[in-house]
Amino acid sequence: MIRLTETVLRDANQSLIATRLPFEKFEPILSEMDKAGYYSCEVWGGATFDVCLRFLNEDPWERLRKIREAMPNTKLQMLLRGQNILGYAHYPDDIVRRFVRASVKNGIDIIRIFDALNDVDNLKVAIEETVKSGAMASGAISYTISPVHTLENYVKLVKEMAAMGVGSICIKDMAGLLTPKNAYDLVSAIKDAVDLPVVMHTHCTTGLAFMTYLKGVEAGADVIDTAISPFSGGTSQPATETLSYTLRELGYDTGLDKEALHKIAAYFKPIRAEYLANGTLNPISLTTDTECLQYQIPGGMLSNLLSQLKMLNVPDKFEEALKETPKVREDMGFPPLVTPTSQLVGNMAVQNVLAGERYKNVSSEIKAYCRGEYGKTPAPINEEVRKKILGDVKPIEGRYAETLPTDTFEKAQEKLGDLAKTEEDVLSYIAFPSVAEKFLTERKAKEENVWTFSIEEVK
Ligand code: CO
């Protein structure tokens, strides 16, 4: 049997329309989605939290509770960036624990936990607390290609995550770089190493995804991430119905209800058309981009590099910056190129090219990275480069999270005063201070207006 995770409410929503689906837009279809027979629905985490507060004027916690209520029979899943929770800053351990507990309390069943560097020290607290809270931790590999990202090293990581108590292993291929052959080899190696379900996650960006899934399934993958057809393809996942159809024909039972999938697709079709018409869904994100296969650099990073150089009025430096990027990545110990390391490496490459001298202009983020604040790098950082960047500053020994203040929660609570009604409000503020404060202030004003209005009525 092979099961499918539906990503339309989180990753597909995020990849194609910048997470702009408000709750009301998908509420009517939730009960049908609940009947479809998915392994799980990815509905929360990633950018959904930030976008709810920043653009949709929605309380992300309330959204989660409402989805939970409408989908009592389906496992709800979220994406968590380990020690960074949902953003890029590093949080102290007690905040990570509180956030995980609150997520489970509000309805999450499966937390997919990843780290940009695959540093298990950034995963372990989140994994431990997820398991303790009674939910399933899915330990994710941030998939990348480099001389140190060997099957052997991936297997080592998988075994470490298994020892931490994860209930499944996810191969998270953010950029669509996982090829059918490599998927077959990697899934086989993981299946040989641990007795855990393997989940595959990829994007259609490079056009490989359908083939990659098929070879992964052949090698024994248990779950694949797909998106209902109107929100599939391009930078999103492969279509749920297509894979379900193909797998069934090949003799795999998916447990999916064809009728339900048909209704879900019919529901999302006009929504896709609407977002295409209003420009939120850019047709460019629906095309196949094979350039990143050649450079082994995620598509988003290539376009960022180019737009950065255009902004600096030196678009002709693109080739040079492109050549510098893998060199910087090697100096930095081959980090997977995913946010935030993709930005760090890309910016550094541009600076090196513009300055005409390598590591002359160095951002505070690169300095923090070299000090070890982001965690252990896959390979050691080039010692000469590190010395040039840090000077006499010593790198951190051990976990950066343990050097952070332990009164973050209390301080935030104090700062918010009566703006925060629940622990969840405080956590929203810790995750996204300015947007959450604005949201909570407006919420309070709204409530007070209602109150003033009723007084006027009495008069
Ligand atoms: Co993704």
Report what the structure shows:
The model is unreliable at 454-459 (pLDDT under 50). The protein is built from 21 helices and eight strands. Helix 6 (93-105) packs across helix 20 and helix 8 (151-163) packs across helix 9 (180-193). The chain is globular, with a radius of gyration of 22 Å. It has three domains: 3-277, Aldolase class I (TIM Barrel); 289-401, Conserved carboxylase domain (Cyclin A, domain 1, Orthogonal Bundle); 407-458. The chain has an eight-stranded parallel barrel with strand order 1-2-3-4-5-6-7-8, surrounded by six helices. It has 459 residues and is of the alpha/beta class. Cobalt (II) ion binds at residues 11, 174, 201, 203.
Keywords summarizing the entry:
21 helices; alpha/beta; Cyclin A, domain 1; single chain; 3 domains; 459 residues; TIM Barrel; globular; binds cobalt (II) ion; disordered C terminus
Query: Widest sheet: strand order?
Result: 1-2-3-4-5-6-7-8
CATH class bucket of the largest domain: Alpha Beta
Q: Judging by the overall fold, what is the CATH architecture of the largest domain? A: Alpha-Beta Barrel
Q: What share of residues are in beta strands?
A: 5-15%
Quick recap of the structure?
This protein is α/β, with parallel strands linked by helices and 459 residues long. It contains 21 helices and eight strands. Helix 8 (151-163) links the parallel strand 5 (136-142) and strand 6 (168-172).
